[in-house]
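Task 17 of the worksheet. Students: predict the tertiary structure of the chain below and write it out as structure tokens. Keep your answer in the requested format; marks are given for formatting as well as content.
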Amino acid sequence: MGTMQSAVREGITPTIIGADIDDWEALLALVQSSIRNNSAAKAAVEIALYHLRSQQFDTSLVQLLGGSGVTIQTDYTIGIADTEHMVAKARTLADKGFAAFKIKVGGADLDTDLERVRAIANAVGA
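Model answer:
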């Protein structure tokens, strides 16, 4: 399947339409077996199904999943660009509260990649 949108519309959705939401494990298994690869599309549908399930039980998604708090820490991916741009992006994100970064590398030689990672770490105080 090409795009995530087409994977959801043409692959996953036709497979799960009419499935019993109360047979939860079977429903999740249908999502996983509906298409090959494209884990992002499967994850998106599963997240939507979990949200629907929380509504079904008239509870928050946090409570449905066993959590008690309302905040979680997540990372932010910084795409490959020139070092200056990557550092600026990291600073902006750090100012917004992000403390964990996934830094894409491989767009240059090893020394340049290492320089970028070090520059980002220095910029955000890691």
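Marker's comment: The chain has two domains: 4-64, 75-124. Helices lie at 4-16, 24-34, 39-56, 61-64, 83-95, 110-124.
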